[in-house]
Design a protein that fits this description.
By secondary structure, the chain is mainly alpha-helical. It contains four helices and two strands; from the N terminus they run βαααβα. Helix 2 packs across helix 3.
Length: about 120
Amino acid sequence: MATNDIALTTYNNPYDPFTDSDNWYMFDLHNGTDCCGYLSRIVDEIKLKDTKINKTNDAFVDDETNDVYIEEAMNKIVKINPLTYLIVHPNDKRYSLSSKEFSKTIPKIDTINSDD
């Protein structure tokens, strides 16, 4: 799958990264999640571990290889942080929901009381 068919976002971001990228990006930065920066760091980490690429020229991989790195990084981020990040597709139905319905898509975290 080409990475332009998917995007990394957070559960609490109500903006569609495909059709409303400016608002999506501002919300993402304002909330401190920085999906783009986080994704970039994980892609770089994966590239450094890939012994098949020339370390002196690792920034210049072809688009298809780069798409593989990006998708692998997205999957890794979601696996590490399943309650914060998710991968969405264009026209994802969650962006057509009302605010109340949208908030139901956010995973609930059980809290532990200090009395327990």
